[in-house]
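Sharing a chain and its predicted structure for anyone who wants a worked example. Both blocks are below, sequence first, tokens second.
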Amino acid sequence: MSARNCTRRDFLRRCAGAAGGFALSKCALGAGGLVLSNQALKVRIGSRPNIVLIVSDDQGYGDASCYDHPKEVNTPSIDRLAAEGVRLTNGYASGYICAPTRAGLLTGRYQQRFGFYTGGHSRVGVPLNEITIADLLKKEGYATGVFGKWHVGLDYDYRPLQRGFDEFYGFLGHGAHDYFDLKMEGTEEHNWIYRNNTPINDTGYLTQNLTREAVSFIEHHSKEPFFCYLPFNAVHWPLQALPEDIKHFDTGNESRDIYMAMVECMDEGVGEVLNALKRTGVEDNTLVFFFSDNGGAKKNFANNGALRDFKHSVYEGGIHVPFIVKWPAKLAKGSVCPEPTISLDIFPTILSAVGASLPGDRIYDGKDMLPALLGENTKPLHDVLFWFDGENKWAVRAGRWKLLSENGPVELYDLEADISETKDLSASNPAKVAELQSLYDEWNSQLAPPIS
């Protein structure tokens, strides 16, 4: 390849690709492009982490055994993540349902800023003027792949390969997908399984297939920086599990048994991904995120532990989720972070880790979590966090205090004293109600109308 035709990504890949050492490629960019010395490239490329982002779907806060959980819950791979990384105890999703959270995750911005409020907005998609984390990592020379439930756009221009990803295996949306029926015949286009931009027929159990594809991607790109996004559709409805997994559970509730079997299979997938990182020699410098896209679903018999309510709610049970970060080269093993964090924070944390900057032409709501994960933050990561479904459910958290409206009058809770939100303090603390209401109203005034 000539220098004239070499892209920045080709350049970085060639420089990073020498096994067991460092070899400077003759490839370079022309005038006005990238020119780095041998030593600078060692620093720039050799220290940049790989990124693995795993999202579970509708998993209950009590359905990971590294959190408070009922006796039937056993998630050794998720527990392994926590034992080898940082377990967050005040981690939040930015939405109480799947698609809005995923839209915020990919952009690092409250999804309401660009009018993405509901699951139905996934049919339109994240506006094309929004920049995804994959867009930015691709420019940084990363191989980018997504394997799972896309759920942020159906039309061609809104699909993964047009939004920064090199590879895609999965389905476009909507929220649910049959776990066994992976054929095109008799299904709507949004439920087809795609490989890149091409629909395919496939067989097998979908959770295992997504794991297979993610592991293959890691193995094929282990000699270059990569971003592997694994948004499972497990454990979203429908309740469908492998018969051999269902036999492992006897809770007295058949539906709960099937759900737990789905959790088990997904947990095994997490373990296979972790094993692939170790097997390929990239575990130490791979930054891994795991969280659920919203609280556990009542329909699926999920368990949210002490948290009130379920998915579709701005009570803690709808938005407070399992959230774990692992980066062996940087983060202490087995540590716990109580700092309130939100899924929007993953975007700037990734950019900070790879040494890239946030675009300067828009507001970013996510914050770099690394100081908090390292225990080095001297002030709160967020002064305030917000939720809004575009209609009549909203919440605001500032420190220990949370004000919310769940289709009715406002309610005030002290989360440090009452994580289960059992004692409404709004009547006895009108000043705090007014303070939080003002913060929410100011934020709400900045939001875009719903996309259409």
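Comments welcome. The first helix runs from residue 8 to 16.
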